[in-house]
Design brief:
mainly alpha
Length: about 150
């Protein structure tokens, strides 16, 4: 069956379901017919465009800001791992550790944050990463994130 036929068949099913929903009495639950109609309306491509069209700029700004922060984290990790001679195979895991440090750091500061950092370090030590290097990566990432540039 071609794409055009499949699309037409799907459209017929949708129209039939909407007609049946409008005819049905609400004895199957409060507003079940209206809920089905609303569901199909929100699947309309035009409606999806309306909803996300207004959010596009805000989403792009958030993505750009997040990409800049993650680039700073990657830069801080690289400044520690490159001089230490970390092989390319394990460098990725230090990058992941750096992103996890950022995840903990971005929350509001609270007394238990040091324990969270220690738990992260224990997790990555158990996975075979160097504890001294983990501490240096953590310090470099926090220092870079606290910098005002």
């Amino acid at each position: 069956m071609g794409k055009g036929k499949e699309k037409a068949k799907l459209l017929r099913r949708k129209e039939l379901a909407m007609k049946n929903a409008e005819k049905r009495e609400p004895d199957r639950g409060v507003g079940s017919a209206q809920a089905l109609v609303k569901y199909y309306r929100k699947l309309e491509p035009g409606r999806i465009g309306e909803v996300f069209g207004g959010l596009r700029e805000q989403m792009a700004e958030r993505y750009q800001a997040q990409a800049l922060v993650l680039a700073r984290v990657a830069e801080a990790v690289a400044k520690v791992t490159d001089p230490a001679g970390v092989p390319r195979m394990t460098r990725f895991w230090y990058q992941v550790f750096g992103r996890e440090v950022y995840r903990v750091w971005r929350r509001p500061q609270y007394p238990g944050i040091e324990q969270e950092f220690q738990a992260l370090e224990m997790k990555w030590r158990a996975r075979g990463l160097d504890p001294k290097l983990l501490r240096r990566v953590r310090d470099a990432v926090v220092q870079r994130l606290n910098a005002k540039d």
